[in-house]
Amino acid sequence: MLAAEAANRDHVTRCVAETGGSPDLVAHTAALRLYLRVPHFLTEWTTDPDRRAAVSRALALDIVSMKLLDDLMDDDTGLDRVELACVCLRLHLRALHELASLAREPKAVTDILERDAVYLCGGQIGTKRSRATNLQEWRAHASTYGAAFLGRYGALAAACGGDGQPGHAVREFAEAFALTITTADDLTDYDRNGERDGNLAHLMRTGAVAGQDVVAQLEELRGRALAAVQAPPGAPGLVQVVHLYTDDVLTRLVPRHLGG
Questions:
Q1: Quick check: 186 and 195 in contact, CB under 8 A?
Q2: Do the first three CATH levels of 1-102 and 108-259 match, i.e. the same topology?
Q3: Using CA atoms, how far apart are residues 157 and 229, in angstroms rounded to an integer?
Q4: Angle, helices 23-30/49-74, rounded to nearest 10 degrees
Q5: Are 99 and 124 in contact (CB under 8 A)?
Q6: CB 146 within 8 A of CB 132
Q7: Who's near 93: CB < 8 A, 6+ residues apart?
Q8: Closest CA to 228 of 157, 122, 141
């Protein structure tokens, strides 16, 4: 896993530097460890190691490009916004080129990206307009910028991973895992960035969301992810990943926000 993360990091930062990205931007992208690691998880069903590595690198390019777009919108990194925009566009186009060259049907790549963009972008706009006030609303928002975001990369991994890919299962894993990560981000951002309106930890602390309901949701997501990795040809390497990330949220992050 660490070797794959390092390979993805080198591939992405090389493209950033070639596009004229500053040393600060190169360092920023190199530090996006989870974004660089997740493509390796999504390609677990790909049995050919060379194809898996190529798909993982291409996914990393686009995932990082979308992170840079998010940085551009939030304007909270101190990085030059024109630089962020230009490098984001270059990474996205390079990813599109690489993914299309790997897909059984190149058109499937743009079909997936365009279809999910409608839901993802609409959800992101809606999230900014109306902040969540309960767990149901929070999950509805997170299902767009979290689950739909990573879900489309699960779909792309299946479309580019060669024969025998269980497309539905790969996407199901990606969406469930994404919601677990999004939960962790919200619980962390309460302290790290001082987030309040619509933040899950804030909703827990103010009594709008019961801690036991958050625990139940995380266990449901664990079950969904584990069921998905059983789909033939199977992805047994992800079982430990699911437990590791879910248990970390349950034992390290959730307790911080119980009891107000």
A1: yes
A2: yes
A3: 14
A4: 120
A5: no
A6: no
A7: none
A8: 157
Domain 1-102 has CATH 1.10.600.10: yes
Given CA atoms 4, 8, 13, 15 in this order, what sign does their dihedral have? positive
Both tokens of residue 91?
């990474």
Average pLDDT, the chain: 95
pLDDT at residue number 197: 92
pLDDT score of 235 more than 60? yes
What is the secondary structure of the chain as a DSSP string?
-HHHHHHHHHHHHHHHHHTT--HHHHHHHHT-HHHHHHHHHHTTT---HHHHHHHHHHHHHHHHHHHHHHHHHHT-S-S-HHHHHHHHHHHHHHHHHHHHHHSSSHHHHHHHHHHHHHHHHHHHHHHHHS---SHHHHHHHHIIIIIIHHHHHHHHHHHHS-TT--HHHHHHHHHHHHHHHHHHHHHHHHHHT---TT-HHHHHHTTSS-HHHHHHHHHHHHHHHHHHHTSTT--THHHHHHHHHHHHIIIIIGGGGTT-
Domain spanning 108-259: CATH 1.10.600.10: yes
Contact (Cβ atoms closer than 8 angstroms) between residue 179 and residue 143:
yes
Domains in the chain: boundaries: 1-102, 108-259
d(CA 149, CA 10): 23
Burial (CB < 10 A; 0-12, 13-18, 19+), residue 62, is: buried
Confidence of residue 17 (pLDDT cuts 50, 70, 90): very high
Backbone angles phi, psi at 81, to 5 degrees: -70, -35
* Cα–chain center distance at 160: 18
Return the higher-pLDDT residue of 128 and 55. Answer: 55
